[in-house]
Design brief:
The protein is mainly alpha-helical. The protein has one helix at about 5-104. Belongs to the BORCS7 family.
Length: about 100
């Protein structure tokens, strides 16, 4: 081989080596980019799921608040009924006393 042929061969090998290195680097960059895109996609899926869960929880909270309001109304009505029963028991006791007094 002549010096120029040998120089061209070395230059070709050098260029080939640089190209191989650049292709490897680009391949690694593409893999890293793909992983990042997938991670971002997964993150957006998680955020979407979190948003759906929050909406479901909000509905549950609203339903619970409604149930608590209804229970408060029922409690108030039960208190009125308890007071009425207590008043009737007192009146019944008074009537019994009056009957005993009349029957003596």
């Amino acid at each position: 081989m002549t010096a120029s042929t040998e120089g061209q061969a070395r230059y070709g090998q050098s260029v080939k080596g640089l190209l191989t290195e650049k292709v490897s680097t680009c391949g690694a960059d593409v893999i890293a980019l793909t992983k990042q895109v997938l991670k971002g996609s997964h993150s957006s899926e998680l955020l979407g799921q979190a948003a759906r869960n929050m909406v479901m929880q909000e509905d549950s909270i609203l339903h619970s608040e409604d149930s608590l309001r209804k229970m408060a109304i029922i409690t108030t009505h039960l208190q009125y009924q308890q007071e009425a029963i207590q008043k009737n028991v007192e009146q019944s006791s008074n009537l019994q006393d009056q009957l005993k007094h009349l029957l003596k």
